[in-house]
Write a structure and sequence with these properties.
Helix content is 34%, strand content 21%. It is of the alpha/beta class and 202 residues long. A 9-stranded mixed β-sheet has the order 1-9-8-7-6-5-4-2-3. The protein is built from 8 helices and 9 strands. The protein has a single domain, classed as Aldolase class I (TIM Barrel, Alpha-Beta Barrel).
Length: 202
């Protein structure tokens, strides 16, 4: 079964609580909290307080996706409110940040941008998840890059995710190529029937 994590990045701030309630009622099992500093990726996303508030409101756990130049500076705050923290291998000091995630008792994850070779870095901590970006980080609403499926095949990792442009059809295609979880934003959040959306993937 493919796990779906929802990103509220593209939802206007005033609509986020209602959208979060709607998705949780539809059976959503995971949030994906995007974080950007405006340098590594376009500015936007969430802060830990907002993520904690929406997580508590819905009873749905979440993961943090740090699209930032210096992830180590952000790890402590996010590990306090998320059970997994994902850092980009293109970011400065990403290994130190990943080690800190483990020290704090959260699950580690790495993200690979589209231009980064689909090769796992050596000596990753046990249980490290791998998130493959199907769009350039921070470009919510961009189209899914078809070559992402080939990248999934090459990585063949036991905990493999995809983020960017995910529709139900693409989620199923990603699962067929080894993805165990997907991140969806606009498609899921705007779905007339989010329960049907989720059921069609799982």
């Amino acid at each position: 079964m493919t796990l779906v994590a929802a990103s509220l990045w593209s939802v206007p701030a005033e609509q986020r609580p209602a959208t979060a309630d709607r998705l949780a009622a539809a059976g959503l099992r995971r949030w994906h909290w995007d974080v950007s500093d405006g340098g590594f990726a376009a500015a936007g996303g969430f802060d830990p307080d907002e993520a904690a508030e929406l997580g508590a409101r819905t009873g749905v756990p979440g993961e943090a996706h740090l699209m930032v130049t210096d992830p180590l500076d952000r790890v402590d705050a996010w590990a306090a409110v998320c059970d997994r923290v994902i850092v980009h291998v293109e970011a400065r000091g990403w290994r130190s940040a990943l080690d800190r995630v483990v020290e704090l008792g959260a699950r580690p994850g790495i993200a690979l941008s589209p231009g980064t070779p689909a090769v796992l870095p050596p000596d990753l901590p046990d249980g490290t998840a791998v998130l493959v970006m199907a769009i350039v980080p921070g470009t919510a609403g961009a189209a899914f890059r078809p070559q992402t499926l080939d990248r999934l095949d090459r990585l063949a990792h036991p905990e493999l995710g995809v983020d960017g442009g995910i529709t139900p059809e693409l989620a199923r295609s990603c699962a067929a190529h080894g993805a165990t979880w997907v991140v969806s934003g606009g498609s899921l959040c705007a779905a007339p029937d989010p329960r049907a959306w989720l059921d069609s993937v799982g």
